[in-house]
Amino acid sequence: MQVTATAIPDVLVFVPKVYGDGRGYFFESFRKEVLKEHVGQVDFVQDNESKSGFGVLRGLHFQKPPFTQSKLVHVTDGVVLDVAVDIREGSPSYGEHVAVKLDSETHNMLWIPQGFAHGFVVLSDEAVFSYKCDNYYAPDHDAGIRWNDPDIGIDWGIPQERIQLSEKDARQPFFKDAFHFSYDEFKQEKVYPRNSA
Ligand SMILES: Cc1cn([C@H]2C[C@H](O)[C@@H](COP(=O)(O)OP(=O)(O)O[C@H]3O[C@@H](C)C(=O)[C@@H](O)[C@H]3O)O2)c(=O)[nH]c1=O
């Protein structure tokens, strides 16, 4: 597994070694010890999967304390542009985002720690999106930020008129009015100390 930091060092890209042969392919999609080496102890409790057509944009989403979630995300089929926004007030990269193309050819994955808002847009005809979360879904703590917030300024890579949103996402608050985490509370080294059991 090749692991590289993005422009926001707490957000990591994992690229597995894929073994192809006449039958198809094989790769290890998750190894706890690899995540522990690079992030710290993570206890995933929920796996999710969604399927969407071209232009579907899900996000930007996060859950408020005490149900904050880290996510390890990848695409099982198709291509998406995946985005993580640092919403930890006081962080050196507060308000900044990283956008990484995830696809089912390289099987690359993105680690999005607690303290970030997350979203993706589908760039292929369809995409199946799969991810692990380290906290349960908590609808009462569900929160979001508007996908086209001018202060965040994400280039989603497709024309605005092709973007399809849920009613909820079309009405998410703008960044300046949204819930923010505190960097001190949600520093990755604090949430996931590497030497923990
Ligand atoms: C996220 C979630 C939704 N649901 C239900 C609620 C709702 O009826 C239906 C669809 O929910 P949503 O519209 O919120 O689904 P979706 O827009 O796909 O939400 C997801 O977006 C991506 C970007 C994320 O980062 C995820 O954490 C999650 O927020 O599924 C669950 O039962 N469990 C879950 O964990």
Automatic annotation (TrEMBL):
The keyword Isomerase applies. Keywords: Isomerase. It comes from the Bacteria. The record marks 137 as: Participates in a stacking interaction with the thymidine ring of dTDP-4-oxo-6-deoxyglucose. The keyword Isomerase applies. One of its GO terms (cellular component) is cytosol. The active site is at 61 (proton acceptor), 131 (proton donor). Its EC number is 5.1.3.13. Pathway: Carbohydrate biosynthesis; dTDP-L-rhamnose biosynthesis. It catalyses: dTDP-4-dehydro-6-deoxy-alpha-D-glucose = dTDP-4-dehydro-beta-L-rhamnose. InterPro entries: RmlC-like, RmlC-like_jellyroll, RmlC_Cupin_sf. GO terms for molecular function: dTDP-4-dehydrorhamnose 3,5-epimerase activity. One of its GO terms (biological process) is polysaccharide biosynthetic process. It holds the Pfam family dTDP_sugar_isom. Catalyzes the epimerization of the C3' and C5'positions of dTDP-6-deoxy-D-xylo-4-hexulose, forming dTDP-6-deoxy-L-lyxo-4-hexulose. Belongs to the dTDP-4-dehydrorhamnose 3,5-epimerase family. Homodimer. This is dTDP-4-dehydrorhamnose 3,5-epimerase. It comes from Prosthecochloris marina.
